[in-house]
């Protein structure tokens, strides 16, 4: 258990320093959604939820959108990069090999899913994007770009989570209108 603690502390320290202000909140919030979807969450899923976006917090290692033609390609590279960084952290903390491999699989598949557990992580992350990240994303990006991101995120949600997200309210009226139009136009 000491090793898991070591991993969590290292993830927290890195994510806290991220230049993306919502990163630490989103990491914890993804874990909270995960716990709602899977109350008996295991250590691998827990580490994966906290660290799935870790590469975004490391300026000199993060992948950049402009280097990829397709958004899905960028997301795939982002997932793999986070998985590699987490593997290094887990090795430093002397985590056992099976757990490292499990976390690596989960995080490298957190954007596309793959098996039941990777799909749960993907859904928790996707719901958390709407819960936490979207208003921050809007501040950094154009209306059109935010709308595209909203559509991309909403379309990949299973119906039951589409209903959860449709209940969210946003303080910023522009964001609220944008999300409404994205949801209504998503069919
Ligand atoms: Fe995420």
Strand content: under 5%
Helix/strand order, N-terminal first: HHHHHHHHH
CATH domain fold name: Hypothetical protein af1432
Q: Estimate the mean pLDDT confidence.
A: 96
Termini Cα gap: 46 Å
Q: Would you report the number of β strands? A: 0
Judging by the overall fold, what is the CATH architecture? Orthogonal Bundle
Structure description:
This protein has 187 residues and is mainly α. The longest helix is centred in the last third of the chain and has 25 residues. Helix 1 packs across helix 4 and helix 6 packs antiparallel against helix 7. Bound molecules: fe (ii) ion. Fe (ii) ion binds next to helix 2.
Which helices and strands occur, and which strands form pairs?
Layout lengths: L1 H15 L6 H15 L5 H9 L19 H22 L4 H12 L7 H25 L2 H13 L3 H8 L6 H12 L3
The structure holds fe (ii) ion.
């Amino acid at each position: 258990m000491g090793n898991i603690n070591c991993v969590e502390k290292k993830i927290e320290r890195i994510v806290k320093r991220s230049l993306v202000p919502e990163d630490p909140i989103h990491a914890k919030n993804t874990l909270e959604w995960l716990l709602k979807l899977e109350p008996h969450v295991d250590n691998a899923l827990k580490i994966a939820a906290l660290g799935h976006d870790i590469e975004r917090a490391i300026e000199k290692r993060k992948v950049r959108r402009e280097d990829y033609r397709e958004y899905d390609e960028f997301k795939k590279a982002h997932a793999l990069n986070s998985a590699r960084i987490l593997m290094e952290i887990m090795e430093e903390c002397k985590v056992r090999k099976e757990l490292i491999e499990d976390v690596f699989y989960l995080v490298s598949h957190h954007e596309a899913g793959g098996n039941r557990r990777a799909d749960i992580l993907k859904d928790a992350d996707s719901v958390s994007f709407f819960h936490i990240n979207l208003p921050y994303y809007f501040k950094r990006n154009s209306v059109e770009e935010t709308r595209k991101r909203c559509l991309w995120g909403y379309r990949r949600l299973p119906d039951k989570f589409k209903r959860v997200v449709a209940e969210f309210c946003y303080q910023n009226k522009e964001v609220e209108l944008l999300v409404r139009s994205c949801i209504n136009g998503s069919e």
